Amino acid sequence: MGRAVTVATCALNQWALDFEGNLERIVRSIGIARSRGARYRLGPELEICGYGCSDHYYESDTVLHSFQVLEKLLESPATQDIICDVGMPVLHRNVRYNCRVIFLNKKILLIRPKIALANAGNYRELRWFTPWSKARHVEEYFLPRIIQEVTGQETVPFGDAVLATKDTCLGAEMCEELWTPNSPHIEMGLDGVEIFTNSSGSHHVLRKAHTRVDLVNSATAKNGGIYIFANQKGCDGDRLYYDGCAMISMNGETVAQGSQFSLDDVEVLVATLDLEDVRSYRAEISSRSLAASKVNPYPRIKVNFALSCPDDVAVPTCVPIQWRYHSPEEEISLGPACWLWDYLRRSKQAGFLLPLSGGIDSSATACIVYSMCRQVCLAVKNGNADVLADARRIVHDETYIPEDPQEFCRRVFTTCYMASENSSQDTCNRAKLLAEQIGSYHINLNIDVAVKAVVGIFSMVTGRTPRFSVYGGSSRESLALQNVQARIRMVLAYLFAQLTLWARGMPGGLLVLGSANVDESLRGYLTKYDCSSADINPIGGISKTDLKHFIQYCIENFQLTALRSIMSAPPTAELEPLVDGQVAQTDEADMGMTYAELSIYGKLRKIGKAGPYSMFCKLINMWKEICTPREVASKVKHFFRMYSVNRHKMTTLTPSYHAENYSPDDNRFDLRPFLYNTTWSWQFRCIDEQVNAL
């Protein structure tokens, strides 16, 4: 009969504009799919050019090179006798579309443009592409000559259509279309489409995987069918980490699950499924049959090819499995670690340098680098030749095999404790002990000579010497003296990043890591151009609360006992003089708010779309057991004053791993003014009127 179909999906670590590498990974994935018996292969969104090309999509070169790669794919022996579904930009009648190009045996079957474009948060697809607005409509697309010469076709179908093979019917939707209220798979399913495909460029956010998996499974729970989901993975050139999770679902249940975080550039999932299970599932739902009898049909592209074999009665089929989710702590351990590895190997640097203060944030960053080293050693142990080749190139040793995470960490990771007269011995000891346990090459230095030299220049020019407030100075003097220390640390971090390996007789330079968390960035509790200014920041999108949980996870799973004292110590910048040898300055006292409060403010401001008045109205109910309305008003006003006064710092924020939906990243995600009227006079007056009324 032909009822068992074998299909493949994949997660590929594509890189924007890396046409050579992208082609190699696509061909490799198709070869793996064919070797496992698949008759259809789905790849990620825009996999030929890489999803994150941004304004390079405006360039005709991007479209040209995409077609050149398509030509190579059409000619490749690996693509024969398997339906290949690849993603690339296509210009049709001078309009640029985000498309799927579906081909078989050197013939293009259909070019399917994206109907619903992602245009919120980190996505800007409407900037570069136009959505296809002609539902169930197909036009002729005139192929470029280089493709005509391979396929022998002058024109191919372009538009909203489905493929009818000898044994089933396939319909494509792309990324955002799954997330829209009226997804294409609904109408396609009613029109008899049995296999739905989704090529995505979906990035990681903490706790997002549940939503994505639920959406895929629910797509076929009410309507029946097979759903194939492909996604990009890795860092393709910016702040986002695409987290794979390729999957295949049937009738509302997962039957194949890909990894969310791994160092494998190519991951292929293959499943064999029984079409009769779809048909019997649908036949039982009478309401679906009634709706299907009235549906407006899709244009069908007939394909003289089958996804099944005639004699397949004895072919084993896949059974439902339970999806295994990572905890948020595991996500922090794995996601930023994989992102750092991609950045390190693709930037062709020799490692990282981190100013390690002995506090939670820099310690969490160090643990993420250590987690990266663990992932590298595990990948090499499991036979990943790509990771081994990258590791050897990074350490400049063609015979090296990374087997021990601590030993590999010492080769690629330098930590530096930059003491001043305001630093305590406790933080120095904590930093040193953590460095010993993770294996980093650790440096201790003192910045007092440089601080006194800079302040001395100011005193020589002005005849005035600033003092800390504990010595009778003004708050402006004290803040300036704190900022000098912080900024000198940034200068020294870059100096040591460039020359430390040279001083050790080793080649290469180091990338500087920042360690400001998302809450401190939101509040602006950092010095502009201090150690928060770095090349990249793996924790810049993670809250202080989640970082504390991650530290506890590292204590339990990595046996990093040095973190216990770091966890118990109050967060402090150590920029003001010690009192009786003890730290007197704490972060929460300086900020005038707790980290827990900051996290709530951040979520209400960004995710809840709350201005000062709306935030006040929400918090008087949320905090009614612990605060009076007047106290809530005071807290909200203080937050918005500090947020607006410091918003200018976000314009220079170090590129950070995106992990939270309330990130204040000014580059693309959270677009706001950076010069505010910080009195918020109208908004605060509305709050005061409400307080008086209450």
TrEMBL record:
Q: Does the keyword Cell division apply?
A: no
What is the main EC category here?
ligase
Q: Which SUPFAM superfamilies does UniProt cross-reference here? A: Adenine nucleotide alpha hydrolases-like, Carbon-nitrogen hydrolase
Q: Which family does it belong to?
A: In the C-terminal section; belongs to the NAD synthetase family.
Question: What does the subunit comment say?
Answer: Homohexamer.
- What UniProt keywords are attached to this protein's entry? ATP-binding, Ligase, NAD, Nucleotide-binding
Nucleotide-binding among the record's keywords?
A: yes
Give the metabolic or biological pathway. Answer: Cofactor biosynthesis; NAD(+) biosynthesis; NAD(+) from deamido-NAD(+) (L-Gln route): step 1/1
Its Enzyme Commission number(s) read: 6.3.5.1
Gene Ontology biological process terms, A to Z: 'de novo' NAD+ biosynthetic process from L-tryptophan
Entry-linked Pfam families: CN_hydrolase (PF00795), NAD_synthase (PF02540)
Q: Which GO terms describe its molecular function?
A: ATP binding; glutaminase activity; NAD+ synthase (glutamine-hydrolyzing) activity
Kindly give the Gene3D superfamilies that the UniProt entry links to this protein.
Answer: Carbon-nitrogen hydrolase, HUPs
Residue ranges of domain CN hydrolase in the record: 5-275
Q: InterPro entries this protein is in?
A: C-N_Hydrolase, C-N_Hydrolase_sf, Gln-dep_NAD_synthase, NAD/GMP_synthase, NAD_synthase, Rossmann-like_a/b/a_fold
Its Gene Ontology cellular component terms are: cytosol
**What name does UniProt use for this protein?**
Glutamine-dependent NAD(+) synthetase
Q: Which gene encodes it?
A: Nadsyn1
Q: Which residues form a coiled coil?
A: none
